[in-house]
């Protein structure tokens, strides 16, 4: 049971009251048309979306690397309780899937610190890069749009993002005064697989030069059911998740820009499945792994403390975040705009064994980015920026396997573009300095710097067709966890040892994409090769019944892969889609353990969409292949088939645009395992699941 469940007023009551109030207040007010909440029948009628994560404000069709932008009705349909599961079905993206509470996106086989997660351009400063059982401090129901940039070319956000960058666009800081003075939405949803109940609201108002915003989410979910045939039963013990999240924001908006401030509070509790206390007493003994009983001095045997059978730890997450955002257009001659993004985060999560806190992680961090866009010089338009971040990390308790550290980063970057007839060229560079101070005797501080560069081009070589290519060389600097870890980490069944001699990684990436972006048939097919020199990985030194002694080490590795999607419109009402992805990751040396662990299996699927006026329907099927290209001490994962169906209906409720939606995932109730999960056998994927909800806008 969640530590946050109480007798507080349900969010559903607040939403009901809000809807009643706004329905009366705006009964005579003109609202957005019904068509605005309907998925357009013609892909060509969809407005071109500017990619906010692009420093130059480039539209998606002109990006030099593949980009996915999910918003509107599509985002409502695919949203799950975690960011990783929300994006999991996009080509080239999988998730770390650690039960229901924690799931971080994996892009092209790369995860953790190699994938940067942003909140409208500012880093989300949580502890999710440290361990896969740590949740991303963000609620998907509050996202307006989610952008995914694949590959390391988004240099404005750090050379370390060699896998890609995810930018979550939200509404918590208004950038314009609502046309009618007030606008917003409310949503209620539930599912069957975990008896989830969730509600969300957001409202923006303003007058004159001042706008305000408020939003919130409440979610309660029990342990989820898995597909039929699992030997451990029907439910994953400890897979519950409860969340309370809210934000308030205010902006001053002028003719040439805006400046806004927002505060976000998140409280989440969730279980950690697969936590095996059998290995809690494992330790180093003469450089080898020792688990179980051992003799004390004098010959007496000592047995490590055991926890109650079936006891599942609970994470209690508490995050307080301030965001400051601003933009000023044409401040001086030659400067088109200046943009500010700053955040201050006080993040803490406690891991509880019963009612007692066993381990506590705290992360106090700030991130400041200022950039200026200059007017064209010799045909080149560009952005120059500076960024500074600081992270003060402390862990205490039984699994405090990383010492207290302070990580400081400073960076300068430049991105430029040039257009010539059917060509668009882009080039960028970033240099960053990192200083890690460690507060533990016997460990030394770590100072390092790195330079990343990228060039690319988009060529519209024929009507409706384009070819884009990019080359990049990026440095990823070692993290504090990779340098200084030393201790038991039960979530991943490992004893981790850091390596203070780690050098920076060097990613050499080539990306090619062929696109057809208009007409009855459209497609995007991408191929990539990412050769990483000095790739940092967890090398297994010893193994005891599945519990591994690992040390962070470096080897050259190469990631290659394909991803693509093709759509064909059979008629104004029916459209078919074929999609798939494949990634292969191997160490370059000829040693026996050449495969990298937890690399996603190949995936191929098809989808049919029907737009019948106000009614939209979808049927989707995909196959995830068996993954038998495994690392040492890693088992193969069987493949599975997934069949999903969904529908949504647009209408007006009380004069307000609304959408009623339902979807049925895993229709056949198949037992499925995710190869990318550390706990794949302890927490299979959810079984048959019905999700239904209603969303109303005003």
Automatic annotation (TrEMBL):
SUPFAM superfamilies: Porins. InterPro entries: Beta-barrel_TonB, Beta-barrel_TonB_sf, Plug_dom, Plug_dom_sf, TonB-dep_rcpt-like. Residues 344-667 form the TonB-dependent receptor-like beta-barrel domain. Residues 64-165 form the TonB-dependent receptor plug domain. GO terms for molecular function: siderophore uptake transmembrane transporter activity. One of its GO terms (cellular component) is cell outer membrane. Keywords: Cell outer membrane, Membrane, Receptor, Signal, TonB box, Transmembrane, Transmembrane beta strand, Transport. It is a multi-pass membrane protein. It is found in: Cell outer membrane. Its main location: membrane. One of its GO terms (biological process) is siderophore transmembrane transport. Residues 1-27 form the signal peptide. Belongs to the TonB-dependent receptor family. This is Putative TonB-dependent receptor. It comes from Duganella phyllosphaerae. The lineage of its organism: Bacteria, Pseudomonadati, Pseudomonadota, Betaproteobacteria, Burkholderiales.
């Amino acid at each position: 049971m969640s530590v946050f469940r109480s007798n507080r007023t349900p969010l559903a009551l607040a939403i009901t009251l809000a809807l009643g109030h706004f329905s009366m207040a705006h009964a005579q007010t003109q609202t957005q048309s019904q068509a605005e909440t309907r998925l357009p029948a013609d892909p060509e009628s969809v407005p071109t979306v500017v990619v906010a994560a692009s420093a130059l404000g480039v539209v998606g069709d002109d990006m030099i690397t593949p980009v996915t932008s999910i918003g509107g009705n599509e985002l409502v349909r695919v949203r799950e309780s975690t960011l990783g599961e929300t994006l999991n079905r996009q080509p080239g993206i999988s998730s770390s899937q650690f039960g229901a509470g924690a799931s971080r996106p994996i892009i092209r086989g790369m995860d953790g610190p190699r994938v940067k997660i942003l909140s409208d351009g500012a880093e989300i400063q949580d502890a999710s890069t440290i361990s896969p059982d740590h949740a991303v401090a963000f609620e998907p129901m509050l996202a307006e749009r989610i952008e995914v940039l694949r590959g390391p070319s988004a240099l404005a956000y750090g050379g370390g993002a060699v896998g890609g960058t995810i930018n979550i666009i939200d509404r918590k800081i208004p950038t314009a005064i609502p046309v009618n003075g007030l606008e917003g939405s409310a949503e209620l949803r539930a599912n069957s697989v975990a008896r989830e109940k969730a509600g969300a609201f957001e409202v923006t108002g303003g007058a004159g030069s001042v706008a305000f915003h408020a939003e919130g989410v409440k979610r309660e979910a029990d342990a989820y059911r898995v597909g039929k045939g699992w030997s451990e039963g029907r439910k994953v013990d400890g897979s519950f998740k409860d969340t309370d999240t809210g934000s308030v924001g205010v902006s001053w908006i002028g003719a040439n820009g805006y400046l806004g401030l927002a505060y976000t509070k998140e409280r989440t509790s969730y279980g950690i499945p697969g936590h095996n206390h059998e290995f809690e007493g494992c330790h180093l003994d003469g450089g080898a792994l020792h688990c179980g009983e051992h003799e004390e001095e004098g010959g007496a045997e000592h047995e490590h403390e055991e926890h109650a059978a079936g006891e599942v730890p609970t994470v209690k997450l508490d995050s307080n975040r301030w965001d400051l955002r601003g933009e000023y257009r044409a401040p001086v001659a030659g400067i088109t705009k200046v943009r500010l993004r700053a955040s201050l985060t006080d993040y803490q999560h406690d891991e509880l064994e019963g009612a007692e806190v066993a381990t506590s992680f705290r992360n106090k961090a700030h991130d400041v980015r200022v950039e200026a866009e200059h007017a064209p010089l010799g045909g080149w338009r560009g952005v120059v920026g500076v960024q500074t971040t600081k992270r003060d990390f402390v862990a205490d308790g039984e699994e405090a396997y990383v010492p207290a550290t302070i990580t400081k980063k400073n960076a300068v970057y430049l991105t430029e573009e040039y257009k010539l007839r059917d060509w668009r060229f882009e080039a960028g560079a970033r240099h960053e300095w990192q200083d890690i101070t460690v507060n533990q005797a016997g460990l030394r501080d770590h100072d390092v710097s790195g330079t990343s560069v990228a060039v690319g081009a988009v060529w519209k070589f024929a009507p409706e067709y384009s070819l884009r290519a990019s080359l990049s060389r990026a440095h990823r600097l070692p993290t504090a966890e990779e340098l200084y870890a030393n201790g038991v980490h039960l979530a991943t069944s490992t004893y981790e040892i850091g390596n203070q001699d780690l050098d920076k990684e060097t990613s050499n990436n080539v990306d090619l994409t062929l696109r057809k972006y208009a007409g009855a048939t459209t497609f995007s097919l991408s191929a990539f090769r990412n050769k990483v020199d000095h790739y940092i990985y967890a090398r297994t030194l010893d193994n005891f019944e599945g519990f591994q002694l690992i040390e962070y080490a470096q080897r050259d590795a190469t990631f290659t892969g394909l991803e693509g999607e093709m759509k064909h419109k059979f008629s104004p009402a029916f459209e078919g889609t074929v999609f798939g992805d494949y990634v292969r990751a191997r160490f370059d040396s000829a040693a026996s353990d050449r495969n990298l662990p937890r690399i996603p299996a190949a995936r191929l699927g098809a989808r049919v969409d029907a737009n019948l006026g106000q009614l939209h329907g979808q049927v989707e099927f995909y196959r995830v292949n068996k993954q038998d290209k495994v690392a040492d001490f890693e088992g193969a994962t069987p493949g599975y088939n997934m069949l999903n169906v969904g529908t949504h209906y647009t209408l007006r409720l009380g004069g307000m645009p609304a959408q009623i939606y339902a979807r049925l995932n895993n229709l056949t109730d198949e037992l499925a395992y995710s190869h990318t999960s550390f706990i794949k056998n302890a927490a299979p994927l959810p079984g048959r699941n019905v999700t239904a909800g209603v969303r109303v806008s005003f």
